[in-house]
């Protein structure tokens, strides 16, 4: 037995495809009196759910210190091994160095 009728499934999928956001999922959950997990699960099974990508507090895509060190090494045309230990620096310092190299 399914928790959703074919008609509900069609409406849920159509609403989400038109606006694939968390707000849409919350609205659908309230409208159909289902949990967020239930709606997300249904959208996933229908193959339309798009997981929201994680952003930092500043709205940026997260970058690891190791990635920053590798970019710095590339900017200096060095092997990243020569900058061993630099990844222990504060992330903001690494970003500052990288910004200066890109100028």
What does this structure look like?
The chain folds into two domains: 6-45; 65-101, no CATH class. The termini are far apart. The chain has helices spanning 6-18, 22-31, 36-45, 65-75, 91-101. It has five helices and no strands. It is mainly alpha-helical. It is 53% helix and 0% strand. The longest helix is centred in the first third of the chain and has 13 residues, at 6-18. The model has no long low-confidence stretch (mean pLDDT 91).
How would you summarize the topology of this molecule?
Blueprint: H1 6-18, H2 22-31, H3 36-45, H4 65-75, H5 91-101
Briefly, what is this?
With 103 residues, the chain is mainly α. It has helices at residues 6-18, 22-31, 36-45, 65-75, 91-101.
What radius of gyration results from the CA coordinates? 22 Å
Helices and strands, in N-to-C order? HHHHH
Helix/strand-derived category reads: mainly alpha
Strand content: under 5%
Keywords:
103 residues; mainly alpha; 2 domains; 53% helix; 0% strand; rod-shaped
